[in-house]
Amino acid sequence: MKLRNVLIVVKDIEKSRQFYHDLFGLEKILDNGGNMILTEGLVLQEEKYWKEFLGKEIIPENNSCELYFEEPYIERFVEKLEKYYPDVKYVNKLMTHSWGQKVIRFYDPDGNLIEVGTPM
Predict the structure, then answer these.
(1) Where is 70: in which H helix or E strand?
(2) Relative to the CA of 29, which of 44, 46, 96, 106 has its CA 20 to 30 Å away?
(3) pTM for the model
(4) Superfamily, domain 6-117
């Protein structure tokens, strides 16, 4: 068995596609109308379809999981984040853990938690 994708729920699929392209360089592989597969295995699912499928409300900023990216030039990434998305909501701005890894955590436009860290 092999993990193929990670799916996140978004309100506006095109806005989210642009966000993940701008910051992480992810490209669209397949658009199924309300469900879009991006490179690196990220799937965007429009909230209205997910709510219909589950029959439950979506809880943004639930902090139960995160998307983790590694970036060796993290200061450049932070500059890009602040340039393209100055109103981003941070969990923590750039910090250095006791073991030496630099990380930043923030939410995407739909409240999905993202961490970007330097490689270990």
Answers:
(1) strand 67-70
(2) 106
(3) 0.94
(4) 2,3-Dihydroxybiphenyl 1,2-Dioxygenase, domain 1 (3.10.180.10)
